[in-house]
Design goal:
64 residues, alpha+beta, 3 helices, 17% strand, globular
């Protein structure tokens, strides 16, 4: 069975080189899936890398 690793908003912001507020906006808009744990969010690590991969591929298409 696959284990899911969850990251805090601060960890996601660091990985993606974004502010925490931008990560919150991505979560609230539905672009980045997350679960709520108490008053904070946790984002599946795999979702972060999928989002980055899709963003990178989109940039390649737009740049042509």
């Amino acid at each position: 069975m696959n284990e899911v690793t969850f990251l805090t908003v601060a960890e996601v912001a660091s990985i993606m080189s974004l502010s925490k507020m931008t990560v919150y906006r991505l979560v609230n808009s539905g672009h980045l899936p997350a679960i709520r744990v108490g008053r904070s969010f946790r984002v599946p690590e795999q979702a972060v890398y999928e989002y980055l991969r899709e963003s990178w591929q989109g940039a390649e298409v737009d740049g042509r």
